[in-house]
Specification:
The protein has 383 residues and is an alpha+beta fold. It folds into 2 domains: 123 residues, no CATH class; 229 residues, D-Maltodextrin-Binding Protein, domain 2, CATH 3.40.190. The protein contains 16 helices and 12 strands. Helix 4 crosses helix 14 and helix 10 packs across helix 16.
Length: 383
């Protein structure tokens, strides 16, 4: 845990969270899933160089499944970033001719580090963490944004009734590079709070922040809305909300699908990246369709999503389903990514300014979207 010491506070009342209160990140250890059954195929054929983007790698009858290792966040994940796992469960990787092994890592920065370390071919992690590692010299490229919009709520423990009550208290994050470590100063600055330097950072990966809040070691953090019931049930801590981070950062880009440049330089691997992006986009289109709500909630109850407390699947679907990106414009919006880059630079998280094109390859996403659009029937093969 990293602790950001709070110094000073403006007069801002704390709003009771009720359903908006949140719990800390579930940081269970990695566990891979591997569905490799041969499944239904899609309709379009490869075509000539004059065809629209994506046609040359269109999903077709699979002669075999290409293996790919994907780094994900937590196992099971939370709904806002559940797309890699749902894509696997629903059979969309197989639809796009992939044998995908999806492994959950404890914390967003850890998923990015798994790609850095060669433990996965590609992965999804916080955009801020991705920006940091590229700024630090890692030759990586982003090509998709399959997660929901920024979901975190800033929460405080019992006894903090106004903003002034946070003066001299402690904010818990997962340490430098962790998404919450980016979000807390951003939110608190918007409320007139000043955060001190990070202290008390133990050696190791990201930790579950819930026990720190429950034990009084920290009085505030940023967590997911659907987890309030889980945290109350698990460690007995009742939280109230200061508000959502998205309220002060509506253009914040949440998650990025990424790989090493060396991996993408191989045309066969680039084709894998296109197909992974297409499979995740197809999954999001299924889940964001209100007609599929009952099936989505049932899958969540079966343990795909962290937390089995009553009402959590329904709350997760209500909050995030409509926010899952189903196009490149929604998931890889240059304005959102440039805003996030600028914030990282202006806040001192990165030392040199970067441009959108330094980080992202839109052509991979464009080809993936064309591939998905070409499929006449996107019924999940495994349902």
């Amino acid at each position: 845990m990293a602790a950001l010491a709070l110094a000073g506070c403006s007069s801002s009342d704390v709003e009771t969270a009720s359903d908006d209160t949140t719990a800390s990140d579930d940081t269970t250890t990695a566990a891979a899933t591997d569905d490799t059954d041969d499944t239904d195929d899609t309709d379009d054929d490869t075509s000539s160089d004059e065809d629209a983007p994506g046609d040359e790698v269109a999903a077709s009858d699979c002669e075999g499944l290409t293996e790919v290792a994907i780094a994900d966040i937590n196992d099971p994940p939370k709904f806002a970033y559940s797309t890699p796992r749902f894509t696997d469960t629903l059979g969309f990787y197989e639809m796009f001719c992939l044998d995908a092994e999806v492994t959950g890592y404890s914390g967003g920065i850890r998923a990015v580090q798994a790609v850095q370390a060669g433990e996965a071919d590609l992965g999804m992690g916080p955009t801020t963490s991705f920006i940091s590692v590229v700024a630090g010299g890692s030759e990586m490229t982003g090509f998709g944004g399959p997660a929901s919009r920024l979901p975190q709520q800033v929460v405080v423990t019992e006894g903090i009734d106004t903003c002034e009550d946070l003066a001299g208290q402690t904010v818990a994050t997962g340490g430098p590079g962790d998404l919450v470590h980016f979000l807390m100063p951003m939110f608190l600055d918007s409320r007139g709070l000043t955060t001190g330097a990070a202290v008390d950072v133990p050696i190791g990966g990201a930790v579950d922040l819930g026990p720190y809040l429950a034990d009084g070691l920290a009085q505030a953090s940023a967590t997911h809305p659907e987890e309030s019931a889980i945290l109350l049930d698990a460690v007995g801590v009742d939280l109230t909300s200061l508000g959502g981070v998205a309220e002060v950062a509506p253009n914040f880009h949440y998650m990025t699908l990424m790989a090493y440049d060396e991996f993408l330089a191989d045309p066969a691997n680039r084709d894998i990246a296109v197909r992974v992006t297409a499979a995740m986009m197809a999954s999001n289109r299924f889940f964001s369709d209100p007609a599929n709500e009952a099936q989505a909630i049932e899958l969540m109850r079966e343990g795909i999503i962290a937390g089995d407390t009553e009402g959590v699947p329904e709350l997760g679907y209500e909050r995030y389903a409509a926010l899952l990106p189903t196009t490149c414009e929604e998931g890889l919006n240059p304005e959102d990514i440039e805003w996030t880059i600028n914030w990282a630079f202006e806040s001192g998280e990165i030392e040199e300014q970067m441009a959108f094109d330094d980080l992202m390859d839109q052509s991979i996403c464009a080809e993936a979207e064309a591939m998905v659009d070409a499929v006449e029937d996107l019924t999940p093969p495994n349902l």
